[in-house]
Queue: 2 jobs
Job 1
Amino acid sequence: MTARFEWPVRVYWEDTDAGGVVYHAAYLAFLERARSEWLRALGIDQGALRDTERLQFSVVEMNVRWLKSARYGDLLTVTACVARRGGASIDFVQTVQRGTETLVEARVRVAAVDAGSLRPRRLPPSVAALA
C-alpha cells in the first residue's frame, strides 16, 4: 500500500438530512473528493489527463461500511490509500474519521477508461508510476 493521503472536510447543511445528520450519499462524495485531491497532490490534473491522454476514471466497485454518523459542523478527515494497482485499475482503502473515531470504511476500485468510448484501458505510465 502507498502512503495514506488525508483530506479535511467540514460538514455543511447541504450534506445533512433535516436532523443535521450526514446523509449516507454525502459520504460517497467525500470519498470521491479525497481521491481527486490525492491525484492533485501527485501533480495529476484530471481535466488535462482527459484532454491530453483521453483518460478518465470510473468507479466500478465499492464496498462501504457506515459505522457512526457525522453531524452538521463536524470537521472530518477523509483518507485514501492505494491498496493495489492493476494494469487498468486502482484499488483504494478509504476512511472518514472524526478525530480518532472511524465513521466510515470503504474499499473502492476505479477503472481507467477511454474518455470517448468509456471502455477500459491501461493506465498510462505517468499515472501507473505514481499509484
Note: The helical segments are 24-41, 46-53, 125-128.
Job 2
Amino acid sequence: MYWFSSLIIYMLQIMKKFLLIRVIILLIISIEGDALSYECDKNIVPCGCGQTNVGINARIVNGENAIRNSWAMMVSLTENRESPRHICGGTILSESYILTAAHCVDMFSDDLSFENLTITAGIFNLSQPDRISRQVDKISIHPLWKEFHEDLQYDIAILHLAKPLDLETNSSITRTCLPPRSNTLEEMMQYPLNGTSLVVIGWGRLSTSGDVPDILQQVTVNSIHHFDKICANSIHDPSVQFCAGLYEGGKGEK
C-alpha cells in the first residue's frame, strides 16, 4: 500500500497541474496572424506529441474544434450498457494507466468486474470506427474524495487497463508529459502562475442542455490567483485546486 499512497500523492500534484483534461506540453510556439501554432518537437520531448501540431484560433472564446491527431494523449471513457456512451475524458499516463476525475468513475467503484467501462484512445470523433479500446480492470479513487466531494476536492482517479496500450509503435497515441514533483507546499500553491494560458480539451457539452459534440473540442483559459475575489466561491483549498477561466465567462476550474 505504500507505493499506492505515494502514487496518489504524486498524482494529486499532477492533477492540480493538469486537472483531468488540461494538458501543458513543452512546446515551441509560433504566431501566425490570430492563430497560435504549437510545434511539438519529438527530438526534444519524449511525450505529448501527436501526429500533427496543436493549432488554436486566438479569437475563439467559447471553444473550437481541435485539429485531428493533435491531442494524442486524450481518451474517452465509455460506458457500455444498452449502447456505448461517452461519460468523461481522461489522459494517458503510461501504457497501463489513465488519469481521470473521481466523479466520472465513482459509480463504477463497487463493480469489481468493471465490465461496463472501457477507454477509447486514438480518436478525434467519438463516432469514428478506427479506434483503440481497452477494458478497465481496476479503479483507484483518491481516499479523500468521498469526504470532500461536495467541494470537488481530491477529484482524481487512476484507471488500470486490462491490456497495455502500444505507445512504442502506434503514433496516434502518446503519454502526457508529467511535471516535476513539487517539493514544498509553497511551490504547489504558486502553480500555475497567475495569468498562465491553459488549454482545456474534451468532448464536454457545449451548453447546459446541449448534446455531446462528436468532434474533440479545445478552448484556452487563463489561470487566476486564488487571492482574487472572483475565485472565492470556486476553490476551497488552493494547495490542491486552482482557479481558471472565470474571466472568460466559463466555469471555474477545480
Note: The helical segments are 2-18, 102-105, 145-148, 185-189.
